[in-house]
């Protein structure tokens, strides 16, 4: 590699530059050139690349385009950056010259010429374009139907549909230009027009890509709506179960507190002078045992049915206890009033 001073200007011609690179073993290094020298090298390199002067089977590597040392190398083979570029695909969609085995929707339109462009040429073109669209879309597993009014074809989506319109128009710079519009989903609309160098047939790949993107957008929207609905149902179900268990838990606590209060009250009655074997005390203690959840600790309650909200069950006393009442003479107590007799 030949090392050159920072003030070294590039050769005046591309041929001289190639001779310089070849004579220096394929490489040249200019030591940190000033801006005007670097710009001069960029200009000659631009001519070298843009006019196709790089020999076949070689590529040019440049470093230091804007700062630092300027290094140029002519190397054999393909440029490394091209290894990562995908091969160009032929995206042009072929449109049949004749309408053979027409799709049912297109066949229906063929029998409704008043909905199609008026000129014979554009009417035929419109049918062939619509047939190609119908074939490509149905091949992807989607449904195509005949539309109504100005919408000629309808691509059925899950939540809405995509409409396709075709018409001809005349302007100051064209006559009977064919126009195609894809409507939806939603209110969006994309339009393509005939051009002198690019008729609608040459834009069909882009048209199909737009339709497929609309289908994917609808499917994504449907999936998102489905997931949101499922999430809503799960949250509602969790709330229902939580409310049901909370009611069950509150009922347990209330029963436990009431049982404790009844037992405390019975103890106070005994302290006040009531006979420990009194039937009222026996019934009260038995009732406390019947409602106390600690007497037979329950497990987690069964979840309610999804359609049925949890309903709180009131405490149910045992059926074989004595009826509450005062069946024997109570001992005198200073807090007793005349209406207790």
Automatic annotation (TrEMBL):
Biased composition (Pro residues): 295-304
Native source organism of the sequence: Rhizocola hellebori
Coiled coil location: 218-252
Superkingdom to which the source organism belongs: Bacteria
Chain segments carrying region Disordered: 292-341
Annotated protein name in UniProt: Uncharacterized protein
Alphabetically ordered keywords of this record: Coiled coil
């Amino acid at each position: 590699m030949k090392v050159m001073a920072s003030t070294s200007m590039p050769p005046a011609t591309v041929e001289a530059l190639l001779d310089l690179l070849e004579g220096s073993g394929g490489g040249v290094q200019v030591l940190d050139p000033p801006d005007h020298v670097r710009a001069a090298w960029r200009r000659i390199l631009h001519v070298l690349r843009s006019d196709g002067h790089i020999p076949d089977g070689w590529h040019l590597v440049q470093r230091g385009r804007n700062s630092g040392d300027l290094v140029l190398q002519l190397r054999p083979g393909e440029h490394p950056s091209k290894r990562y570029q995908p091969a160009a695909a032929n995206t042009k969609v072929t449109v049949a010259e004749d309408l053979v085995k027409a799709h049912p929707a297109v066949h229906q339109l063929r029998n409704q010429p008043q909905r199609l462009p008026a000129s014979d040429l554009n009417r035929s073109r419109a049918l062939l374009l619509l047939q190609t669209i119908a074939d490509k879309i149905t091949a992807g597993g989607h449904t195509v139907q005949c539309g109504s009014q100005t919408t000629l074809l309808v691509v059925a989506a899950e939540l809405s549909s995509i409409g396709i319109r075709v018409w001809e128009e005349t302007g100051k710079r064209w006559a009977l230009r064919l126009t195609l519009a894809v409507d939806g989903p939603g209110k969006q609309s994309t339009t393509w027009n005939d051009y002198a160098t690019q008729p609608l047939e040459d834009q069909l790949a882009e048209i199909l890509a737009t339709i497929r993107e609309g289908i994917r957008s609808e499917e994504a929207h449907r999936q998102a709506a489905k997931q949101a609905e499922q999430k809503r149902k799960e949250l509602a179900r969790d709330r229902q179960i939580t409310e049901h268990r909370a009611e069950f838990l509150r009922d347990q606590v209330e029963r436990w507190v009431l049982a404790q209060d009844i037992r405390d009250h019975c103890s106070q009655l005994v302290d006040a002078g009531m006979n420990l074997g009194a039937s009222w005390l026996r019934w009260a203690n038995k009732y406390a045992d019947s409602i106390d959840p600690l007497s037979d600790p329950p497990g987690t309650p069964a979840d309610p049915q999804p359609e049925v909200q949890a309903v709180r069950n009131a405490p149910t006393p045992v059926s074989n206890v004595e009826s509450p009442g005062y069946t024997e003479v109570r001992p005198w107590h200073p807090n007793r009033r005349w209406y207790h007799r």
